[in-house]
Sequence to fold (402 residues):
Amino acid sequence: MDTPAPGLGRGMALLFAVSCGAVIGNIYYAQPLLAVIAGGFGAQTASLGFIVTLTQLGYACGLLFLIPLGDALDRRKLIVALLGCSVLALAAVALSPGLAWFAAACAALGLCTCAAQLLVPFAASLAAERERGRVVGTVMSGLLLGILLARTFSGLVAQMGGWRLVYWLAAAVVLLFTAILARALPGDRRSEPLRYGALLASLLTLVRVHPALRRRSLYGALAFACFSLFWTGLTFLLSQPPYGYGEAQIGAFGLVGAAGTLAAGGAGRLSDRGHGGRVTTACCLGILLAFGLLWLGGRSLAALLAGVLLLDICVQALHISNQSVIYALAPEARSCVTTVYLVSYFLGGALGSGAASLAYAHAGWTGVCLAGAGLAALLQLARLTASAEETDPSERLGEASA
Fold:
């Protein structure tokens, strides 16, 4: 379906990256604001962890039912349409009169925000084969920075003007990028578009035919479960003694995570050179070690900051490495490959968010860290038990060029 790509200029790659970051932030603005939103609606802070879960489930539904259309329709038109719907959903969140409306609007926002994941395979399709890892790494770094800096942005804005202002400003930003992308993105014609039913059926075929896709989807789901569990639980920790931070201070922790994302940006280049397997192994171990530091962070700010940095570097580098692998599997069906991987990824994130609320309610910060360590141990076990003969495509390319 995709035509061979001559390459993607750095300016265009940067536009893809910034756009992804601006859009994906929509589903993370609420995380550092759980305490203030709960107070506004008269609810318990820990009980609002379900909002993050619900938003991620909406996002997973968008990935499953809307992203496959990227292999059948003009991706430029589809992206612009979904971004327009995101603007409406952000306005609905800002206007929420009660918790039920807020929850429903967040689910709808998650559904529309899947537009960010149409941009990633679109960029991969436009990139030349020799630069695909670098391009995916650049775009994913923008997306992951958006995830983390969304917390900083929402915390600062909410401290100054309340949580509703966060969503009004976000709506303005998304509207701006909708206009920019409508003009800047190239057309994306399909010579033989598949029917929607055939697209959904092809998802099962991809899962059955490609062991690397199954394996990388499992890695991604477990890693993002750890990531989402931590960031949801962190709000509960920092809003209570011994920290007692406000929204801006909690949101500022996203800057630490952003530094980790920048450090992880080299994972795509390492995958291009055939070292994707080594990156994966190191990241799986690093995520497990991070939860030891994070547990100490219940009383030590230095340990907490070190744990945040290690966790984010490993989760982001693993994600970039995963995508470098899966985009080499089926070039004609990259949107569907994205769907399989990211539905798994964000179902893992929803699991982690829900687990954070339960763990904190029953055992506080120690419970959150134990739950995270358990998920990280499963990830490490999955990596260790991967069959030696199931070599990733990126590793084969590296061996061939060595």
The first helix runs from residue 10 to 24.
